[in-house]
Amino acid sequence: MALVACQQNKQIDSVKDIIVQPYPKTEKVDQKDDFFGVSVADPYRWLEDDMSEKNKAWVAAENEVTQAYLGQIPFRQAITQRLEKLWNYEKYSAPFIEGDYTYFYKNDGLQNQAVLYRKKGDKGAEEVFLDPNKFSADGTTSLAGINFSKDGSLVAYQISEGGSDWRKVIVLRTADKTVLGDTLIDVKFSELAWRGNEGFYYSSYDKPKSGSALSAMTDQHKLYFHTLNTAQSTDELIFGGEKLPRRYIGAGVTEDQRFLVVTAANTTSGNELYVRDLTNPTAGFVTIVDNFDKNHAILDNDGDRFLIYTELGAPNGKIIETVLVNPKPTEWKDLIPETENVLSPSIGGGKIFASYLKDATSLVKQYDRDGKLEREIALPGVGTASGFGAKKGDKSLYYTFTSYINPGTIYNYDIASGKSDVYKKAEIQFDPTQYESKQIFYTSKDGTKVPMIITYKKGIKLDGTNPTMLYGYGGFNISLTPSFSTANIILLEQGGVYAVANLRGGGEYGENWHVAGTKMNKQNVFDDFIAAGEYLIKEKYTSSERLAIAGGSNGGLLVGACMTQRPELFKVAFPAVGVLDMLRYHKFTAGAGWAFDYGTADDSKEMFEYLYRYSPYHALKANTSYPATMVMTADHDDRVVPAHSFKFAARLQEYNVGTNPVLIRIDTNAGHGAGKSTAMQIAEHADKWAFMFQNMGMTYNEIK
């Protein structure tokens, strides 16, 4: 691993008085909505119309103010150059075998998108198979999913234009990369599941007939089968639609190609489970689970025997076995019982790999097909191990290990012996031995113990002056586990602190931890995050004048809620692609599916009042001093529509008093985050660190 020669050769001072151009005068309209007899004003409703010229003019005007401010920060360019240097190293994915070829992704350093390479056998020459950098001139069209047929002779891949969740699908013959048939369009939230070489299953919604395709509701998911070399208009509807309306439908085909597996759900938590025997042309679907109460997934099958992951009667997850003749839950038998740690299983080489979360870090055990423990896998340290998937006949697999101070290292794992060997090590200019990452537990408002991992350079003084970034998410059963970020090196090498709190609402301690941060318990998440900030101040890692908070999507809601509830606690706030209008979120794209976590303002008077109380857009108060804020969004975000950020920023600019700037940074030709080009990522991170350091009154020590 190449190490940094940490020579601090120039100190760049901050500018005391950066001129903030006058904010655009945002028009207000007389829009009021009635919720259970309560009239709620929404003066910036017109910003929801992303197709209007007036909206586009507002975006351009706001971006002009933001870029004018950022352009005055004296060290912004130095941070950009430092990030470009740090980012410029070869990045590899773990390899995977399809047919006669081994495939892997590689980015030479500063390429906008990773390139898919392949080689034949172990000694074959490497060749480019698919280069997403050639999809568009500016790198904003990305590879958004790829699936090979069982024999590897065919491949279907998805592309995303401008970061949109709407995808196109292209099919190739892998031998010569010939395009087969027409490009499929308007595919959304879909895997591609091959049935032999005949065709594949995919899911989508009807494209909205009126209004904006980026913000209109998408409510009924439909599962289709596409036969190669036929028109998409003739694709067969397999599941869903008006007769069986479901908001989310996923499909897979078992490795032996015998069964089509379908999951169906109306929210982001809990699903039905169905299978269909593809060897019997007249077979219908067999129902395994007929309700949305818990999460379930088929891992694999041995003939008519199914191995299923389930949370039924097991909030932390377990693996059961059942048979096709009577697969209902009443007949299930435990194969790997629930433990105190959260389970996330995978299959490889005929084995079951049980990946557990132990206080948000990885613990992995290997079992045989009958649930007998074979070994606990010796991991390189405390961090996150991911991968552990392979085909049934494979003798080895690859996994990746990372932490907040260890760049991702790829290991080759021999399934029979349990031995791990380093396959690829990241050659980034970063020396992990100079840094420390430790886990602590702090107490939230109601007495709950919450874990947080704090990372910093060894030897820093805990005197309350360290610039600190506190990051969180807290929702949708998603776990924040240790992972390395090149961008965070900027903060760490300046003597800063990076802290990640594992809040309720996440999945770190299973479904009970998740539910404790949903609906009428959502305030627990904000209390946990606020308590994390208070802990960092109390223990003198930082002070309110040097504390920044950041989060994206549901994490953007987190930041918005906390900065409106405790504006004095934080100096800088970065709500990114956030859900900020909690009274209307469910009226756009797939937002209604988030109701398991949030509830909706239409559910009941009590639910409305709860949402109204913390909804960031509505919680803003006039004549209040808020943290220096840079709201971040993108014009093609069709998951959390940018109207959330537009309306929040407009009202925040109206209400904020004092000297802290309120900016909104709006990426163009970008979406919710996935597929963003390297150039866009570097620019975004440089702007964040520059804005944060400037508003904390810091200098920047340039490092060569």
TrEMBL record:
Enzyme Commission code(s) on record: 3.4.21.26
One cellular component (GO) term of this entry: cytosol
Keyword match tRNA processing: no
Domain Peptidase S9A N-terminal, chain residue ranges per copy: 24-425
Alphabetically ordered keywords of this record: Hydrolase, Protease, Serine protease
Hydrolase keyword on record: yes
SUPFAM superfamilies: alpha/beta-Hydrolases, Peptidase/esterase 'gauge' domain
One GO process term, biological-process aspect: proteolysis
EC class (word): hydrolase
Pfam families associated with the record: Peptidase_S9 (PF00326), Peptidase_S9_N (PF02897)
Gene3D superfamilies: alpha/beta hydrolase (3.40.50.1820), Prolyl oligopeptidase, N-terminal domain (2.130.10.120)
Domain Peptidase S9 prolyl oligopeptidase catalytic: 482-698
Single Gene Ontology MF annotation: oligopeptidase activity
Catalyses which reaction(s): Hydrolysis of Pro-|-Xaa >> Ala-|-Xaa in oligopeptides
Function recorded in the entry: Cleaves peptide bonds on the C-terminal side of prolyl residues within peptides that are up to approximately 30 amino acids long. Has an absolute requirement for an X-Pro bond in the trans configuration immediately preceding the Pro-Y scissible bond.
Family membership: Belongs to the peptidase S9A family.
Record's protein name: prolyl oligopeptidase
